[in-house]
Design a protein that fits this description.
By secondary structure, this protein is α/β, with parallel strands linked by helices. It is built from 13 helices and 17 strands. S-adenosyl-L-methionine-dependent transferase that acts as a component of the wybutosine biosynthesis pathway. Wybutosine is a hyper modified guanosine with a tricyclic base found at the 3'-position adjacent to the anticodon of eukaryotic phenylalanine tRNA.
């Protein structure tokens, strides 16, 4: 790296001068030279040379050189990734004769997803016109600063019914990545398939269930987000995974092989509403948001006719702001998943089931009662006899939008005794 050297007694003064000129390269330490000089690393050799020639530090003996083996500074070694990224981008722009600005500062991401050697940036990052002029150098700098080999940027989810991502690969040859959650390996193409880190609490909850000997039907399997925890950790005997996105089906096939459970799962590629299975499931997962209602008749049909089973129904429920005097009782936890039993709130007496969930909001319960009644009616119509439905649990997964929460209803469905 380029550096300006001086006598040891002037080293700190030179450092301050270079910092004032925005030439100091803080990534590296000041370095002693053979013969007693001290070298101060600089960001741009040409700019430092002009400064020395035109003005320079008055009264200081200085000369330009290059350090062949610079030593990283302590600050550079412990700098958070977001700061490291900004520093590298500033250095790139300075080297190209461009100036840093508040607009560019706001445009630099402070968070991103990491999948192996690929970083996935948010859709609002690097949108200023200047970035486009930098070409591949920009993405190579981003990758280097974040310790990655590939870079992609997320766009809006496409309204195609498959929740297909709109992801652009900016650096690298392909978008296939591998992600590990709770000992389960997921591989998928980030440009073709969605992966929601926010669902990790629900995947962990599924993994803790006791499903030994059970047959599972996963109606919206995707790349195996929930199919795999049921098979790998919850010990389900067999799973039927239904998915209509061909890219997700390809990833699901790979993931079953990766985790050694391919022989315990049958993939049904296509629309789950056309699924031909019936009377064989102990448990059905309906992991589609904002609503999985179109799959409810199918879920009722695949449940065992004689013994019934459990439905796990994902849904987005709107909950209006909570009155201040009850905000502590009904606030959405940052991390859900606690099976603490609580008394039902006022107006829920007589519901017939205990709610095994922390901080269940009244709107969630109201939706769960409507869903339970609807499922009960579908089962009675399908089998020509009464059924009973019991709310076992309401799980808060994450906030989806302002006042909208992604929840999961665990609903037990059994034929009514004669």
């Amino acid at each position: 790296v380029p550096a300006v050297a001086t006598e040891p007694r002037f080293a700190q003064r030179l450092r301050r001068c270079l910092e004032e000129q925005r030439l100091l390269d803080a990534r590296y330490r000041l370095q002693g030279l053979p013969g007693g000089g001290v070298a101060v690393p600089v960001l741009q050799e040409e700019a430092a040379e002009r400064w020395l020639r035109d003005s320079g530090p008055q009264g200081l003996p200085c000369w330009l050189l290059r350090l062949q083996d610079p030593v990283p500074s302590k600050a550079a070694r412990v700098r958070p990734p977001a700061q490291q990224l900004r520093a590298e981008l500033q250095r790139l722009l300075l080297a190209l004769g461009q100036s840093w600005s508040e607009e560019l500062e706001r445009d630099v991401p402070r968070a991103w997803q990491r999948h192996g050697d690929l970083v996935l940036l948010g859709e609002d990052s690097f949108r200023a016109a200047l970035w486009a002029k930098l070409g591949p150098a920009l993405w190579e700098t981003v990758a280097s600063a974040l310790g990655a080999q590939r870079v992609a940027r997320r766009g809006r989810v496409l309204p195609d019914g498959m929740r297909s991502p709109s992801v652009t690969l900016l650096l690298g040859r392909d978008g296939w990545v591998q992600h590990v959650d709770n000992g389960i390996r997921y591989t998928f193409d980030v440009t073709k398939c969605m992966f929601s880190p926010g669902n990790i609490t629900e995947k962990l909850r599924v993994a803790s269930m006791q499903c030994s000997g059970e047959v599972l039907v996963d109606l919206y399997a995707g790349i195996g987000y929930f199919t795999l925890p049921y098979l790998v950790h919850a010990a389900a005997a067999f799973a039927h995974a239904c998915e209509w996105n061909p890219h997700a089906v390809e990833a699901l096939q790979r993931n079953l092989e990766l985790n050694g459970v391919r022989d315990r799962c049958q993939i049904h590629a296509g629309d789950c509403r056309q699924l031909q299975l019936q009377d064989m499931a102990d448990r059905v997962n309906l992991g589609l948001i904002p609503s999985s209602e179109e799959g409810w008749p199918v879920a009722c049909r695949v449940l065992r006719k004689r013994t019934g089973g459990v439905l796990h129904i994902h849904h987005n429920v709107e909950a209006l702001p909570v009155p201040p005097d009850r905000s502590d009782e009904w606030s959405l936890p940052e991390e859900s998943g606690c099976d603490e039993q609580r008394e039902r709130p006022e107006g829920m007496e007589g519901a017939g089931q205990a709610v095994l969930a922390a901080r269940v909001r009244p709107q969630w319960w109201s939706w769960a009662e409507v869903a339970a009644a609807r499922i009960r009616g579908l089962l009675a119509e399908l089998h020509g006899q009464p059924w009973r439905t019991s709310i076992l649990h309401i799980e808060a997964v994450k906030s989806y939008a302002p006042h909208v929460h992604h929840i999961v209803l665990d609903l037990e469905c059994r034929p009514a005794l004669p």
